[in-house]
Amino acid sequence: MAELAILDQAKAALAAAEGYAAAAQSCLRTRLSSSSLEAEQHAAHGYAWVETSIAALRAVSLWLEALEAQSRATQADRLAVRIGFGETLSQLLGGLPMGQNEFIRPAGLGAEDAARKLREDPAVQVFVKQGNTPATRLALIQHLRSGQTITDQTGDPLIDSIRDQYRRFTDDRILPFAHGWHLENALIPEATIAEMAALGTFGVCIPESYGGLGLGKLVMCVITEELSRGWIGAGSLGTRSEIAGELIVLGGTEAQKEHWLPRIATGDILPTAVFTEPDTGSDMASLATRAARTPQGWEIHGAKTWITHAARSDMMTMLARSLPDEKGYAGLSMFLIPKPRGTDEVPFPAPGMAGSEIEVLGYRGMREYALQFDGLSAPEDALLGGVEGQGFKQLMQTFEGARIQTAARAVGVARRAFELGFDYAVTRKQFGKPLIDFPRVSDKLAMMAVDTLFAREMTYFAAREKDQGKRCDIEAGMAKLHAARVAWANADAALQVHGGNGYALEYDISRILCDARILNIFEGAAEIQAQVIARGKLQDRN
Questions:
Q1: Percent over 70 (pLDDT), the chain
Q2: How many CB atoms lie within 10 A of CB 504?
Q3: What is the mean pLDDT of the chain?
Q4: How far apart are CA 457 and CA 96, in angstroms?
Q5: How far apart are CA 337 and CA 340, in angstroms?
Q6: Spatial contact of 295 and 329, defined as CB atoms under 8 Å apart
Q7: For this structure, is 523 an active site residue?
Q8: In the prediction, which pLDDT does 64 show?
Q9: Contact 27/144 with Cβ under 8 angstroms?
Q10: What is the Cα–Cα distance from 365 to 232, expressed in whole angstroms?
Q11: What confidence tens digit (pLDDT) does each residue in 342-378 have?
């Protein structure tokens, strides 16, 4: 495939793939006319994965087009596009993985005729035959071994300088210590948090008028990605500040904004998100924790679980039922509840609040807790915006940003998995030569690099849409769905490259595998994401 033709071929293949998705959507709508989305869940979620895969093709096509226009594209970039397009199109035709043991094929969508048309498209044929081949994978690895990289610079001087700053910080202050922190189940050190705060980590998207940096979601993605490359705990520390900041910016009173936002931006206040309950999972309409009015303010009763960084936080953004006579979401309100910061000896010193740690495989550094509330007091002005019954709507406004940020965390984890696998394959010798000289090893590494690119550009695309003020719930969900799968696949492949050593706790890749697994669960499990994407696309909502 000639270099100058790759972009044109990609655009043509993308158009053909979009036609296939439209046909699959039509087939699914026909089935749903006499059935339900739940009854057709396999096909509906499969269709969501089809649309997600095509969105990845679209994002990478736009990325390569921008690089070519600026004469910045490298041979590694073009090879990555060839491989990624070839693999994705082949999966659309033959079987697209929705999970480790779940696949969607054209027959599962009733789209066999559309698949046949896709297969016959000339541009698609070129990528299927010449895209993901042993020769292209080997060529990509040779470029990477020579020091060339797949371009991650955006071309925006400010954003690229921020990436460089956080990359240096991660290399110096996170990577050398992350595995030790993980093995000790230690909290991220206060000194490290202070350094992150000094860089502006906790106020990236908070307006400058309230002490933040006033930057956008794309910058937030770059920062999160780099920190998560060092350790997912570091990359995730800002998630709660991101959620709290956006809740307050969008729904808070002026007094709440003036009080909370500057303190969150400087890191003086570390928030925690208190939403999930033991028996509800993603079914937030069934939340039962109660907030009752008192002469002094509010009183909280109930239980929450999987609350990250609960002990060392200073404020809880809590979803609770304050209107008991209202059913479902209508009875939920959002609260900003101050709390004293706990210690190892007394993790929950506030009267009316208790908690116990949930021990976890990975995602350490902040710790997970189950919380119980038995009359915890909250001030009168804790009600977000001073209005009841709007809690779920207020939370939904933050879901786009939270899922984009989670996708960025996944990209960072995926990138680190590749780095560890690549470095080990270059230095480890077997049968007289480096592991990377064996095709099955280099093939894994090539696909890891390509998959990371596709996940990254999907995430950046969603962030740019958000920064432009566009609704991007579907794009955010797609980015999170796709990037989480890539993080897990990369971690698994990198551990395989390490062989038995990968299973040893002393090797960093063992931590990466544990950390990667959570990404497919929190901020909306993969199945929830697929449901949201399918419903939105079937309603022609973009």
A1: 99
A2: 10
A3: 94
A4: 20
A5: 10
A6: no
A7: yes
A8: 97
A9: no
A10: 9
A11: 998 999 999 999 999 999 999 999 999 999 999 999 9
Average pLDDT on 407-418 reads 98
Taking the C-alpha atoms of residue 274 and residue 260, their distance in angstroms, rounded to an integer, is: 17
What would the pLDDT profile of 262-314 be if each residue is shown by its tens digit?
A: 999 999 999 999 999 998 767 778 898 999 999 999 999 999 999 999 999 99
Cα-Cα-Cα-Cα torsion 430, 436, 437, 441, nearest 10 degrees, comes to: 90
What's the average model confidence in pLDDT over 20-32? 93
pLDDT of residue 1: 61
pLDDT of residue 542: 47
Q: Which residues pair with 356 in a beta bridge?
A: 370
Q: What is the pLDDT of residues 46-98, one digit of tens each?
A: 999 999 999 999 999 999 999 999 999 999 999 999 999 999 999 999 999 99
Q: Locate 412 and state its tokens.
A: 């960072």
CA dihedral (12, 123, 111, 448) positive or negative: negative
User: What distance in Å separates the CA atoms of residue 123 and residue 221, rounded to the nearest whole number?
Assistant: 33
Checking if the pLDDT of 35 tops 90, the result is no
Query: Rounded to 5 degrees, what are φ and ψ at 383?
Result: -70, 120
The 8-class DSSP code of residue 383 comes to B
Locate tokens 């955006």: which residue?
Answer: 154
Distance CA(264)–CA(256), nearest Å, equals 12
| 540 conformational bin, left if phi > 0, alpha if psi -120 to 50, beta if neither | left
What residue has token string 């044109």? Answer: 8
Extract the tokens encoding 300.
Answer: 């909280």
How many CB atoms neighbour CB 336 within 10 A?
23
By the 8 A CB rule, do 374 and 354 touch?
yes
Cβ–Cβ under 8 Å, residues 138 and 68: no
Q: Which phi and psi angles does 295 have, rounded to 5°?
A: -60, -25
For residue 188, what are its two tokens? Answer: 């991220």
Cα atoms in the 13 Å half-sphere on the side-chain side of 371: 32
Whether residue 148 is predicted with pLDDT greater than 70 in this model: the reply is yes
Residue 3, pLDDT above cutoff 50: yes
The whole-number pLDDT of residue 4 equals: 55
Q: Backbone dihedral region of 524: left (phi > 0), alpha (psi from -120 to 50 degrees) or beta?
A: left
User: Which two structure tokens, joined as six digits, stand for 434?
Assistant: 């480096």
Question: What 3-state DSSP class applies to 542?
Answer: coil
Q: What band does 2 get if pLDDT is binned at 50, 70 and 90? A: low
Instruction: Kindly provide the b/e burial profile for residues 409-439, where b requires at least 16 CB atoms within 10 angstroms of the residue's own CB.
Output: bbbbbbbbbbbbbbebbeeeeeeeebbbbee
The Cα 128–Cα 133 span in angstroms is 9
d(CA 181, CA 511): 11
* Alpha helices (H) along 428-472: 439-467
What 3-state class would DSSP assign to 271? strand
Of the residues 87, 225, 226, 523, which is catalytic? Answer: 523
Bridge-based pairing of strands 315-321 and 271-274 is parallel
